[in-house]
Amino acid sequence: MLEFEESTLNRYAIQRRLARGGMSNIYLAHDEQQHTVAIKVVNSGNTDFVERFRHEVAALKALKHKHILPVLDHGEHGSWHYCVMPYIKNGTLRERIARGPLTQEEAGKILAQLASALQFTHDHGILHRDIKPSNILLKDEDNGQHVYLADFGLAKGVEEASDLTLAGCLIGTPEYMAPELADGPAITSSDIYALGIVLYQMLTGSVPFKASTPMAVYCKHIQERPLPPSLLNPAISMQVEQVVLRALEKNPQDRFKTVQEMADAYAQALNASARQTKMLLQESAFLTPSELRLAAPTLRVIPVAQIEQSRHHFHPAIIALAAMFFLVMVPLALGFTLHPDGMSIQSPIARGASAEFVGQLRATPTPTPTSTSTKTPVPPAVHYANHSIGNGQGQGHGGGHKHKHGHKNKD
After folding, report:
1. Cα(224)–Cα(214) distance, rounded to whole angstroms?
2. 24: Cα within 13 Å, side-chain hemisphere
3. Helices and strands of the chain, counted as H and E runs
């Protein structure tokens, strides 16, 4: 990516670079009224990147919503195309997750705002196609955090969702890509699946599928069942867990029909959990100390071997998928979010798998592990540390703010 070396860009005074990536650079700047903004710039030398950049600008101009990061200005300056957006310094959801899992209530507030923005885009016939924590910005306000959905660089109309590809490759971030993308274009349910991954990550601190290569990650989306999130965070209620797992169903028909339906189901699950907790607390007030000890929940322990078997089991057909992944290009053709912690590696994944092959991968999903409780000795339990998930997630705009605007991204 070429560097923009001038001190001004039309009427904007460049202060410093916030982030750089394979497709764009993001700079902190001041306008004529000394307002701080984030400017994304793309050199016109790469027609593919410019085309994707224009798609993003067009999508953002068409979508005016309080939870979608707006375009303030855009244009050309010499050999550069640029887009001006508000500078959000409080950071991204990726940064927040890196500090530890969110409570069910915190996750619900963020989900409600994201669902509002995403439902709006779907109602206007546009798919986002790159939903992940580094593309979700958080702004602190007096009444809580205001959520912005950003980075529409891969957004497309529903009818043309299969067009924005590189030589037959499907572009996206493997950790958030729905199984059906292996043999077909993105659909609204693909965005719902990605939002389900984000919800899982908010509640547990981890994405459900991790591996050393993009190929291996995406194979797990096709073949494996995610660990129930309550195994990673026992504070997650059964009702909330059911919502998360439904959003992550392999078959799009088994997921929620709309993003708003998913958000409504989560809100209902939270209310049901709260009522159940209140009822249990009321009942416990009449129990004796010995009865309370007997009623105490048993700690759920996950043996290392069980987790490893779930995480690393591969169907033999996956070997064939390796041949398809020879087109996986890492940072070269990848979009860049609005944050300063790196580029968003949206690895192109070779498309064109036959229905028979994809069917083989989907035929034998790894059984979902269940929680265990036993009085006999068990292997050492795995303690999940709260950590930032690499695999291309971004951070906020400056300060704590790392989005594509000038933020590093690694989602």
Report:
1. 15
2. 37
3. 12, 12
Terminal CA-CA length for the chain: 19
CATH of the domain at 60: 3.30.200.20
CA atoms within 13 A on the CB side of 312: 7
Helix residue ranges per DSSP H, 248-288: 259-284
Among 86, 101, 136, the domain boundary falls at 86
Per the structure, the count of domains in the chain is 2
Q: Are 336 and 409 in contact (CB under 8 A)?
A: yes
pLDDT digits (tens, 9 = 90+) for 9-33: 889 999 998 877 667 788 899 998 8
Q: How do residues 138-164 score in pLDDT, each as one tens digit?
A: 999 988 899 999 988 777 665 554 444
* 258 φ, ψ (degrees, to nearest 5): -135, 165
**Would you say 407 and 94 are in contact if contact means Cβ atoms under 8 Å apart?**
no
Between CA 153 and CA 292 the distance in angstroms is 55
Tokens 């959003």 map to which residue? 247
| 25-30 and 36-43 beta bridge pairing | antiparallel
Tell me how far the alpha carbon of residue 290 is from its chain's centroid.
Answer: 45
Same domain, 129 and 241: yes
Whether residue 322 sits in one domain with residue 252: yes
Domain span holding position 16? 8-86
Can you give the three-state secondary structure of 186-211, one letter per residue?
A: CCHHHHHHHHHHHHHHHHHCCCCCCC
User: Strand ranges (DSSP E) for 67-202?
Assistant: 73-77, 80-86, 126-127, 136-141, 144-149, 156-157, 169-170
Residue 12 — φ and ψ, nearest 5°?
A: -110, 135
Q: What percent of the chain has pLDDT over 70?
A: 62
User: Would you call 341 a catalytic residue per the annotation?
Assistant: no
pLDDT at 236 over 70: yes
- As beta bridge partners, residue 140 has 145
| Position 356 pLDDT exceeds 50 | yes
pLDDT at residue 57 in the model: 84
With H, G, I as helix, E, B as strand and everything else as coil, classify residue 128.
coil
Q: What is the pLDDT of residues 49-78, one digit of tens each?
A: 788 888 788 888 888 999 999 989 998 888
Looking up tokens 């244009």, which residue turns up? 75
Q: Which of 31, 73, 123, 130 is catalytic?
A: 130
pLDDT at residue 383 greater than cutoff 70? no
Query: Residue 360's beta-bridge partner residues?
Result: none
